[in-house]
Amino acid sequence: QSALTQPASVSGSPGQSITISCAGTSSDVGYNYVSWYQQHPGKAPKLMIYDVNNRPSGVSNRFSGSKSGNTASLTISGLQAEDEADYYCSSYTSSSTLVLFGGGTKLTVL
Amino acid sequence: EVQLAESGGGLVQPGGSLRLSCAVSGITFDSHEMYWVRQAPGKGLEWVSYISSSGSTIYYADSVTGRFTISRDNAKNSLYLQMNSLRVEDTAVYYCARGLIAAWGLDVWGQGTTVTVFS
To answer: pLDDT tens digit string along B12-26?
Structure first.
């Protein structure tokens, strides 16, 4: 099964807001089982959003998630230099595969 | 503190085998679903396998079905991935990760162990 579709890269200036999209189908993103991960170079991924729009304890409220139809989104407001990283979405899928990841989006803070 | 520590990675030739382990500490291991996720050099994350908290339900990615076997020992707080018939394309950093209870997300990750399959 194909991975979820994310833009390869996004950029923004400090203080600005950016949004990363994650496009899927009714068989995956269509369910409310979407999570987002941040990964800095050489580090393990970190959970930023679960169940579409919930933040784990300790994650800044500058990070928020949403979904419309079969496309989920991660919004980062008040961009900071340390937000520069790769971001991945993940979804449950009703296929036998169970889990899908997006291809990843590289965020550059200008 | 919750910690996941992978081990067992290394260099292997195509067709060879490796067994990865993930030691879990600081949590009640048997309450959580567990996952293996890999990342090839310079590439994105790829889900590999899932096992339920009891071990009774297992899923695999199509790319590893029939070659990899996930298992867990709740008495030893450990997760395993037996990898057979390894291919060059299995070269990656392999992460174990803990699933949230009653929610969709992997909230704790290990530091990863590197598997290199070379011909």
So the answer is: 999 999 999 999 998
